Automatic annotation (TrEMBL):
Annotated protein name in UniProt: Uncharacterized protein
Matching InterPro entries: DUF6952
Length: 80
């Protein structure tokens, strides 16, 4: 997971585009735009993170940094 890649995705794509990209990756279809990542797994991780962050920003009227912190808390909790 690379924070600059997630930030780039959040700043340049809509939630709708990201959901479509997620579906395409899961169905092993090409994505209509470039997602940063070394492989499909990392790209999917970046998409999941960006979707969470965009939803959190909208639901809680927060900025990117606050939403990113919430996402990283969830990741840390899931691996500990």
């Amino acid at each position: 997971m690379k924070i600059p890649a997630i930030k780039h995705i959040v700043e340049n794509h809509t939630l709708h585009q990201l959901v479509q990209a997620e579906e395409a990756l899961l169905d092993e279809r090409p994505i209509d735009f470039e997602i940063p990542g070394d492989d499909e797994g990392e790209k999917l991780t970046h998409i999941f993170a960006a979707i969470f962050i965009l939803n959190h920003m909208e639901d809680h009227k927060t900025d990117f940094t606050t939403a990113l912190r919430e996402y990283t808390k969830k990741v840390r909790a899931s691996i500990s």
